[in-house]
């Protein structure tokens, strides 16, 4: 059974596709909500991971100035002859975007399993009323919990996020929080520790898009492993990898330290 995996730009065409007997899937819309549910966020992440190769191919095409700009309707008749030329040049002179690896099948199985998983940390926070009750958190320096936080390698972090995008943004979030680009010396990186669950912390993180918005990536951990996470950003409930705010906190506390 074939499934059309499309982005949100096709939202007005979903009805037409279904009327034609086609099965299509698309990432969810927030629709004035503050956050996607865990199921929606996991499903959307799964869709974007499948679609990345399409976006990567489009990016290569847009290296040509002709395709990088808006193509007028009057020029559409030439696309059938121009597109094969561009694709031939790309295929001949550029390396493959990716190659199959031995671990690909294992990653696929893991994604399918995580796709159906509930976010237990969100449930823990809600059951104990920890999301909005700031009095249940104390501000400490990261050095007070660092010995109890697991040490991770780059490969460990890659297994956590599946992709490098979040890790690329991790340093910038940490630098902004520490107000310095030198993260190798002693830095002031404060965290909020839960008073009733000592191995539960959250790190207030300013949004990269609005100075007025602060998110609270929350991490549950032992000295051996990360048990789970949750963030109040719009994709923060997903468990199929994590948002950039959580990735930054884990990166700093487990690796950069």
Automatic annotation (TrEMBL):
UniProt-recorded Gene Ontology molecular function terms: metal ion binding
DDE Tnp4 domain boundaries: 2-91
Keywords, in A-Z order: Metal-binding
Cofactors (names): a divalent metal cation
Name listed for the protein in its UniProt record: DDE Tnp4 domain-containing protein
Annotated source species: Rotaria magnacalcarata
